[in-house]
């Protein structure tokens, strides 16, 4: 019988957890532990890291895991790389449930940069009013460009004041609507949004709002990951678990 370890923290992970629970498939939902109040899940939950690849391999073997599903954030590059290596080391099936990346459309004013360091460097210049749509991680990197006013939006209140000399902080949990984000951008007179290409629909409202307002977006590309089998729909992961041979030839998601 399948025994699934679901590496979660995304909306897609929660949707897959609901499907697994509804079908009575044995599974455990794993949170990294970065969010103070994670969403309740219909599966047994574990919180925290594994201690690197070796620790994850040991966990997979000890718990008798048959399938490792990585449904972490598209920018959780270290965890995703560890998942690929650990699944291979433990000799178990592995797949990723991830979101298709965003692509610019008519009316979008995007500039793509390869990583966070390039995003920080791209802000060299006169003061602007910038929305950092990055969550709590990496905010301190932008202290290298202190001339700007930064708008921050966190899921949880931070333990310490963000190290940006000129900023406004909003604590709120999505999903956000286009109307709400349009008002937010107008109220704060934002010139530019810095965002990671997370993909999906849950965080896309700010991009739709930016398009409507004619604002520029600095879009950070996804980090490179090892080759792996990817799915974009929770239902496809269930099919893979039930019929691994039928989907083993699927191309890698892009």
Description:
This protein has 254 residues and is an alpha/beta fold. It has 2 domains: 3-100 and 225-247, Rossmann fold (3-Layer(aba) Sandwich); 109-220, NAD(P)-binding Rossmann-like Domain (Rossmann fold), CATH 3.40.50.720. It is 30% helix and 22% strand. It contains 8 helices and 12 strands. It has helices spanning 11-22, 52-62, 77-90, 116-122, 178-187, 205-213, 234-242, 244-247; strands spanning 3-7, 26-31, 45-47, 67-70, 93-97, 109-113, 129-133, 149-154, 167-171, 192-196, 216-220, 230-231. A 6-stranded parallel sheet has the order 3-2-1-4-5-12, sandwiched between helices. α3 links the parallel β4 and β5. The longest helix has 14 residues, at 77-90. The protein is elongated, with a radius of gyration of 19 Å. Mean pLDDT is 92; it is low at 246-254.
Describe the SSE topology.
Elements: E1 3-7, H1 11-22, E2 26-31, E3 45-47, H2 52-62, E4 67-70, H3 77-90, E5 93-97, E6 109-113, H4 116-122, E7 129-133, E8 149-154, E9 167-171, H5 178-187, E10 192-196, H6 205-213, E11 216-220, E12 230-231, H7 234-242, H8 244-247
Helix pairs in contact: 1-7, 2-3, 5-6
What would a concise description of this structure say?
With 254 residues, the chain is of the alpha/beta class. It has 8 helices and 12 strands. The longest helix has 14 residues, at 77-90.
